[in-house]
């Protein structure tokens, strides 16, 4: 058995861990570009949890705010600021969008080529600037991955830039930052994390290391997501969701995703569907599609999450896992079909062709053809 494992250099996890942000950053540099969302951090009432530690540590800051679905042009704007303001590190504070921009901007800080030319693996053999990840949602797991998911508006394509140097030097994972999230954000980001956990568990590139993380992440999410959604101030559920998101992110970074992600990106950019919502809609369809080859794996997840007894028949357990996903999607208020979020029959062919370009399909446990993608999209009308 042989495999490589990619991990953040250092992870600070737990309620209040943001108060260590200043001391950690001051070890790396003294002037930081802080990349965050347009409104989410301010609306959360958690701004001082970020600014106070930086002020105490006398870290100078330059702020840059990004939209929910960032583009490669956004990364280039951040890179321009890095040079103009002469910062020596980047701090990403927010959901996947803010963290992905921070990751790509830091990683490409010493490169002149526009970010849009680098879709796919970025051929760098040395790091750019160091960056620190501070996630404020329990979903993307971007604090633990080498991928930056971005939109190229010119080609109307959403895909990843990735490089093994792009893991953060420090990830500060504080569940308190998610306490004020509205239910709809909790639902979408929670399904994003659940999709990462399920797809990495059944990935063709999964290892014993990643499946252990994925299985536990699925268990934690299924036991805590509804409480986090329905009663957001329950600290324990927020903490377990944050931990599960981190674990699923590590598993995803090392095992890869699957057909859900291959389809979620093109439908998301075309119709403006939040990534987690697209994943939540698609996950039951893809799991059902994969049952023919992965029913033992889904039965394992059902048993690990206490949906069925450990002695349950594997076929029955796998089917119950699909039913659970469908019921959870409904309970969290997500659409049952992509058509409810904008999917049009006239676009199906183009979406399937775009999904075929995704590297995520190579990790899916069942081989996916163009006809399969068209069928799944037809089921979503």
Summary keywords:
Dehydroquinate synthase-like, alpha domain, three-stranded mixed beta sheet, 2 domains, 381 residues, six-stranded parallel beta sheet, Rossmann fold
Characterize the structure shown.
The chain has 381 residues and is of the alpha/beta class. It has 2 domains: 11-177, Rossmann fold (3-Layer(aba) Sandwich), CATH 3.40.50.1970; 181-379, Dehydroquinate synthase-like - alpha domain (Dehydroquinate synthase-like, alpha domain), CATH 1.20.1090.10. It has helices at residues 21-26, 40-44, 47-56, 72-84, 96-107, 183-202, 208-230, 235-255, 259-271, 275-304, 314-331, 348-356, 370-379; strands at 11-13, 31-37, 60-66, 89-94, 120-121, 131-135, 147-152, 157-162, 170-173. The strands form 2 sheets. The protein has a 6-stranded parallel sheet with strand order 1-9-6-4-2-3, sandwiched between helices. A 3-stranded mixed sheet has the order 5-8-7. Helix 9 crosses helix 12 and helix 10 (275-304) packs antiparallel against helix 11. The radius of gyration is 20 Å and the shape is globular. The termini are far apart. The relative contact order is 0.12.
């Amino acid at each position: 058995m042989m495999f490589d494992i990619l991990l953040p250099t250092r992870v600070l996890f737990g309620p209040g861990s943001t108060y260590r942000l200043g001391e950690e950053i001051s070890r790396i540099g003294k002037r930081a570009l802080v990349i965050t969302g347009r409104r989410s951090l301010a609306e959360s009432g958690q701004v001082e949890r970020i600014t106070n530690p930086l002020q105490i540590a006398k870290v100078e800051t330059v702020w840059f705010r990004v939209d929910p679905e960032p583009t490669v042009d956004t990364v280039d704007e951040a890179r321009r600021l890095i040079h103009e303001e002469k910062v020596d590190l980047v701090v990403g504070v927010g959901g996947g969008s803010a963290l992905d921009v921070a990751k790509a901007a830091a990683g490409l800080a010493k490169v002149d080529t526009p970010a849009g030319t680098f879709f796919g693996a970025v051929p760098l053999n040395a790091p750019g600037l160091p960056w620190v990840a501070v996630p404020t949602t329990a979903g993307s797991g971007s604090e633990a991955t080498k991928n930056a998911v971005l939109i190229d508006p010119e080609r109307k394509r959403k895909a990843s830039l990735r490089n093994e140097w792009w893991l953060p030097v420090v990830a500060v994972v504080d569940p308190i930052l998610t306490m004020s999230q509205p239910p709809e954000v909790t639902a979408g980001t929670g399904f994003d994390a659940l999709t990462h956990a399920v797809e990495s568990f059944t990935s063709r590139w999964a290892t014993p290391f990643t499946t252990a993380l994925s299985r536990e992440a699925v268990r934690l999410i299924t036991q805590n997501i509804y409480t986090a959604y329905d009663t957001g101030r329950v600290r324990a559920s927020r903490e377990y969701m944050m931990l599960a998101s981190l674990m699923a992110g590590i598993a995803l970074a090392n095992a890869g995703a699957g057909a859900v992600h291959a389809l979620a990106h093109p439908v998301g950019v075309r119709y403006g569907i939040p990534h987690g919502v697209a994943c939540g809609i698609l996950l039951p369809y893809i799991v059902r599609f994969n049952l023919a080859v992965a029913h033992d794996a889904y039965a394992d997840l059902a048993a690990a999450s206490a949906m069925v007894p450990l002695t349950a028949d594997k076929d029955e357990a796998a089917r119950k896992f699909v039913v659970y996903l469908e019921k959870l999607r409904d309970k969290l208020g997500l659409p049952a079909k992509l058509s409810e979020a904008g999917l049009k029959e006239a676009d199906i062919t183009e979406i399937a062709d775009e999904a075929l370009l995704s590297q995520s399909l190579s990790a899916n446990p069942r081989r996916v053809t163009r006809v399969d993608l068209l069928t799944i999209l037809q089921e979503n009308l």
